[in-house]
Design goal:
Blueprint (H helix, E strand, L loop, with lengths): L4 E7 L4 H15 L5 E5 L2 E8 L2 E8 L4 E6 L3 H8 L4 E4 L11 H6 L16 E4 L8 E8 L4 E8 L2 E8 L3 E3 L2
Antiparallel strand pairs: 1-5, 1-6, 2-5, 3-4, 7-8, 7-11, 8-9, 9-10
Length: 172
């Protein structure tokens, strides 16, 4: 199988999250999970002053662009290129150019696999993010996206939540 690379798709400004959702839905509908691995809208935490109050907000790092980790072939090119809101790929003409290792490193995208000390069925504690201090059992793991899915209690119901490998640790 061909190697997956990161590509940049140009979108209408303000449509980045909508494009991400549409591509994610197309991946699911067309069963391309093994060819289009991840879609990202890079965000940056910024301190903003409003009415004399300092507040942390998230801003898009690259308005009008979406990063896609995928195996480039006719099917994946067609799905992304024909997603509503996408105007094309970054590259000369209609030929997409993958990001280089240096560009990916500067964006904080890690290419090497992370070794973790937990597996499906293990109990983990969330150490960061919205679900900090939550304890859950790992239902599934996605090593490509480096996320685990755990069930958390939300409004009295078990709800699956995806959390980054970096935000969980094995509970002892």
């Amino acid at each position: 199988m061909a190697e997956a690379n990161w590509y940049v798709a140009h979108t209408y400004s303000g449509y980045e999250n909508k494009v991400k959702a549409n591509i994610d839905k197309a991946i699911e509908n067309r069963h391309l999970e093994d060819q289009i691995l991840e879609v990202r809208v890079p965000m940056l935490d910024v301190a903003e002053m409003k009415n004399g109050v300092k507040k942390q907000v998230q801003k898009k790092m690259f308005p009008g662009y979406v990063l896609i980790n995928m195996v480039m072939n006719d099917d994946t090119w067609y799905v992304v290129r024909n997603t509503r809101g996408v105007t094309g790929f970054v590259g000369p003409g209609s030929k997409p150019v993958p990001l280089t290792e240096l560009e990916m490193h500067n964006l904080g995208i890690k290419t090497d696999g992370v070794t973790v000390d937990f597996e499906e069925g293990d109990t983990v504690t969330v150490i960061g993010g919205v679900w900090k201090d939550t304890i859950g059992v790992i239902q599934s793991m996605n090593h490509n996206k480096q996320i685990v899915t755990i069930n958390v209690d939300l409004f009295g119901r078990e709800t699956p939540v995806e959390i980054s490998f970096a935000e969980v640790k094995k509970a002892f």
